[in-house]
Amino acid sequence: MAGQKMLKFTTVNRDMPEKRPPDLRNEDFHEIYAEFAREKAAEQASRCSQCGVPYCQSHCPLQNNIPDWLRLTAEGRLREAYDISQATNTFPEICGRICPQDRLCEGNCVIEQSGHGTVTIGAVEKYITDTAFAEGWVQPIRPYAERSESVGIIGAGPGGLAAADMLRRAGVQVTVYDRYDRGGGLMTYGIPGFKLEKDVVMQRMAQLEDGGVQFVLNCNVGTDLTFDAIRGKHDAVLIATGVYKTRDLDNPGHDADGIVRAIDYLTASNRVGFGDDVPEFTSGELNAMGKRVVVIGGGDTAMDCVRTAIRQGATSVKCLYRRDKANMPGSQREVQNAEEEGIEFVWLSAPRMFVDDPANRDEVRALTGPMRGVVVDRMRLGQPDVTGRRSPEMIEGAHYVEEADLVVKALGFEPEDLPTLWGVDGLEVTRWGTIKADFTTGRTSLDGVFAAGDIVRGASLVVWAIKDGRDCATAILNYLSQSDAVAAE
Fold first, then answer.
1. Measuring CA to CA, which residue among 445, 148, 86, 459 is closest to residue 302?
2. Does position 485 have pLDDT exceeding 80, yes or no?
3. Do 259 and 328 share a domain, yes or no?
4. CATH number at residue 90
5. H helix runs in 227-376, sequence order
6. Do residues 406 and 259 share a domain?
7. pLDDT above 60 for 122
């Protein structure tokens, strides 16, 4: 009988939650998608073909048991659906909102390959957990027994928080150290509210605090507290700092007034959303109101910046990317949302220099005033590089000037030099500056020190950080148990 509720993809069309019109959603920072109603969520879940080999699951970093919780949703068994969903994912309500499903689970849906349109996996995942919170099904963290061992986690982003959650459920004493005044990392200060409203993150922070996780905020390791002090206080340490160093430009005029980093720009906007006093926003330095804005980059951070600028009241917003649309790294869904909201994409373009007078398109000199324009080189795609992507090549003599009052550099992130910043010897790093750690356990070159997330794999997705944090938590529990066994001998 239950099976009759599934396999409806030939009779039921794919349908996403209603999206607010661009002219309305551009007025605020609320999420753009409405919630599924119970009947609609069940209807869309019923489209799942219940594959014998579920490619949606195998292409999910967390190996979420997607077909099972889709079936349970179609049958109206939402609490069981939530139990299955949260068994493999610490933050399903967050992944349902910000995962690039078009590149992961939905992009590998079998019925999508057959031309029927993918199951709306992300929207159903979000609906299940939002319902669980509303109905009180999300239980407090209450370990069966407390353990004496303690773990220090450096970084309150998705990797660190996922590990903290699992370790506390096992009864371990957990302290999380973070440089910001709120936990959540980039989920709090890097991702705009129109993709992830902040009360969604804060409710998980409240759950962790209520469950006994201690947070030491406004703490810069290496300045306010040494790494050795943290290591000496705990039985194990997890480094989950993420990567915050912005890739920069070295073009003439790159450090002029009016050229800012994406992380600074997005953080300021999110702080304003919290009601914080942000002088750089009030002064206009990190505010796009009334300005011609150019964002440089083609990833998801660039999409966050252009969509933030249009909501702040920019007079125009353009995104420069050196490759074409088909080769950009960002989510195609986010590109579509940006285009609907009035952002103009200038494909195959790269900045040459920044000028204070748009007439100075060929003059290389120090700026004498605020930046007022970007000299842009037209590009074409040449032969593939070692990664297989076609390399952008400049078209000689095809440059022009893009007038701008604010330029946002969204070129990606690199790891900070942690061994130097923290003054720690013996912490090995790779040639890219990421921490060298075992692929499955996160063990580093220092005994009892583990690492997870972007600081190991480089700038990546929230869902990968969650997986790494969970894997490290398992490895840390094994390490603590082994240490206990040795001590008992």
1. 459
2. no
3. yes
4. 1.10.1060.10
5. 227-233, 262-274, 279-282, 300-311, 332-340
6. yes
7. yes
Instruction: Determine the pLDDT at residue 385.
Output: 82
Domain C-terminal end among 101, 135, 169: 135
Closest CA to 460 of 434, 427, 441, 431: 434
pLDDT at position 478, please? 97
54: how many CB neighbours lie within 10 A of its CB?
A: 23
User: What mean pLDDT do residues 201-228 have?
Assistant: 97
Question: Residues of the chain with pLDDT > 70: what percent?
Answer: 95
Q: Which two tokens stand for residue 53?
A: 């080999």
Segment (H or E) for 88: helix 78-88
Between strands 236-239 and 214-216, the pairing is unpaired
What is the H or E stretch that residue 346 is in?
strand 344-347
Asked whether the predicted pLDDT for residue 57 surpasses 70, the reply is yes
Q: Which of 356, 386, 413 is at the close of a domain?
A: 413
Model pTM score:
0.93
- Looking at the 3D structure of the chain, how many domains does it have? 3
**CA 191 to chain CA centroid, nearest Å:** 7
Q: Which residues contact 481 (CB under 8 A, 6 or more apart)?
A: none
What tens digit of pLDDT does each residue of 14-46 get? 788 889 999 999 999 999 998 888 888 898 899
Owning domain of residue 232: 150-243+415-488
Q: Are residues 83 and 124 in the same domain?
A: yes
- CA 471/CA 462 separation, integer angstroms: 14
User: Which has more pLDDT, 366 or 43?
Assistant: 43
Report DSSP state, residue 18: P
Which SS3 state, helix, strand or coil, does residue 337 take? helix
